[in-house]
Amino acid sequence: MKDESKKYVQEAWDIVKYAANVVGSRLPGSKGEREYADYMGEKLSEIGITPKKEEFSVSPRSGIGGLPYAGWVGIILSALTYFALDNHRLWFGMALIGICMVIWLVFSAFLYKPWFDMFFKQKISQNVYGELVPEDGKYDYTIILSGHTDTSWNWKHSENASRFPEKPIYGLITTYGKVGFGAVCVFFTVGVAVAMAVIYMGLYLKAEWAIVASNSVSLNRFYVALHFLPIVTAIGSAFVAMWNDPSEENASKGAMDNATGCALSYAVIKYFKENPDKMPKNCRIVDFNCGSEEAGLRGSMNFAHVHRNDDLTKNAWNINIDSVADKEYFEVVIKDDWQGCRFDTDLEKMFKDTFNEMGIESKTNGCIHNPVGGCDSTPMTRAGIKSVTFAAQNPMLTWYYHTWHDTPDRFDMETVGTGFDVVLSVIDKIAKFQETNGFNGPQKK
Prior knowledge:
The chain is α/β, with parallel strands linked by helices.
């Protein structure tokens, strides 16, 4: 950490501790999320930057927060199987429920589409941002520093792995083993319901293939197995049902994910506010505290939509900072695989070059894809903003990721300080690129 950085890094570290230890859990649309967003707005006011708040509705349980509902569907279908063996008409209703659940699961929980939000309880979330413009008020481009204010529901299976923090394999077995088995059970119950509904529809229509199938030895044996299989699928589905702890008290404290992102964004804008001579030429810098990322990127989606026709999304670069805590895993996230979104390759190169220049060694070689879920770079990229996500986080599932163990005592200020210096270096590279090439829009391989 550079000497000139220490003052700002200390403040960032104090913000991280305040978020985790004083505010605590900050689920999407919760009182805690609002409190932290207001706090970050007050921090901007303290340095003479006017905060702007943009509220929006969010349905926290319509996406990944509602994954336990899939488990409950599996449990219900498992129980109804016993009744459907005698009342064949039940298969049609069970198949319909299962198909609706799978459609919701794929598009809302996995692909983050807001199509189903109207069917779930809504809350009010908010984005809070502030702008630092050059002293003459003129700028040609914008650098947006973003971090999300909310935290995740406590993942019970991951939290259970905290008993073996030095043996990550136990965490993988505890989490992936249980949930993987549970997912198989849920989809199996849906598949059985659909298959049986198709067969009995064929029988009602007197289709020859259905008559042959209903009299087959294999189907009769499967019927016998259905007297025992629902017990297994109900147990597996229960693992999915208990995936997210619904209690706000038990939710993640969010020190790493993502008080570090908000704190670093603020520390950087404060640095330039107090050192205007180091401000990039003709550049505006925005500190964007984004709400409800854990509910399916709703805050960044709203920001991109609201500002789609103004200059906040024109000639704009976004450094999305999400979880800077694990000193051995500094990396730039270049793609959300599930969202099918490749981030900006110019920014990717700037981060990689910075890591090399600073002598940062990473077990991920400084670059990863986000294999599941999504990050706030996706809506920003789709809005025409050059964006990547910067992180220092073990990409393997850990006992502290999305659990109440995400606290400041797990990591140190020095790691956050390194993150601060990385961001400053990348901003300098953006300025040089902009002066040489201008704005060329998101570049993808």
